[in-house]
Amino acid sequence: MTEARPDATAPSSSLAGIGIVLLSALLIALAPNAAKIAYREGADLTAVITFRTLIGAAGLALYLAARRHWPPGGRDAFRRSAFSGLAQVFTALGFIGAVAFIDVSLAALIFYSHPFLVALISHLRGEARMSANRFVWIASAIAGLALVFGLKLASLAPLGIALSLGGMVAVTVLIFTVAGLSAEVGPIPANLFMTTWSCLYLLAFALAAPLTGLAAPMTLPGSVTGWIAILGAGVTTTTGYVLFFVGARIVGTARAAVWTVTEPLFAIIFAVLLIGETLSASQWLGVAIVIGSLIRFETTVAPAPRD
């Protein structure tokens, strides 16, 4: 996939694209809080992830059916998207598995370093020219996240770090594979294909794991509130993914990925507003560093393309 040069995008279109990516980050940030409500109502992790994905796939399928739209070459694209569905599963499992061995702050910091990797790969592939200064501002934004997360290095278990790195690589693979498919068939069909495969993998795991002793049977929420929370997590996550790839088609995959560092900022703000958590002075400083770094990233001119 060859994307348009991000810096060649008209200012108005660029602003709209970034706005769409920010809306995507805001919606995705709602999902963890919805999941917490579902857990409180008796659901376990397997149930939340599986039904969240099932709801997302069903919603996208109904939307396309209502519009009577199936993209040309859709069947072939669906088959080729099996890898992106696997990447989505490993994206979730890598981060979730890591927190069993290392502090959640370290796992989150490693995972949310993926924009640096996406920008580097895009630069090396010639899809988005990045200056050294731009990489510095991406690194600065990630350093700001370390303050936001309240980074703790009490446990440096190799397996936990490996799982976090695996999640970071998986989400990078997801971004590039679905971005390429989106350019071919559109963001909504591309996300439907990815989510459907992901759902099939998760359903297979949910059915097979108890038989093999790998996990206990899934526990469903015991109230309407729990199911509404899972519904909300499915809708926000899926819509957020679609909007990300819509925005990426406007500003480029690399720039869109850089702005995803706002996801944890939104998640923390929602936790403050909805759950009553509080932020320390160092965390507020981290928020300011992330925002300032993103602004400087956008105002730093990328190098001219090579002849």
Characterize the structure shown.
- The chain is mostly helical and 307 residues long.
- The chain has helices at residues 11-40, 45-66, 74-80, 82-98, 104-111, 114-124, 132-149, 158-185, 187-212, 224-251, 253-258, 262-275, 281-299.
- Helices cover 76% and strands 0% of the residues.
- The chain has one domain (23-299).
- The radius of gyration is 19 Å and the shape is globular.
- The two termini are 20 Å apart.
Question: Which helices and strands appear, and what pairs or packs with what?
Answer:
Layout: H1 11-40, H2 45-66, H3 74-80, H4 82-98, H5 104-111, H6 114-124, H7 132-149, H8 158-185, H9 187-212, H10 224-251, H11 253-258, H12 262-275, H13 281-299
Q: Please indicate the count of domains.
A: 1
**Which percent band covers the strand fraction?**
under 5%
Q: What gap, in angstroms, lies between the N and C termini?
A: 20 Å
Question: Could you give the order of the helices and strands?
Answer: HHHHHHHHHHHHH
Q: Describe the main β-sheet briefly.
A: none
Helix content range of the residues, please? over 70%
Shape: globular
Number of strands: 0
Structural class: mainly alpha
Which spans have pLDDT < 50 for at least 5 consecutive residues? 1-7
Rounded to an integer in angstroms, the radius of gyration calculated over CA atoms is: 19 Å
What is the number of helical segments per DSSP (H or I, 4+ residues)?
13
pLDDT average, as an integer? 86
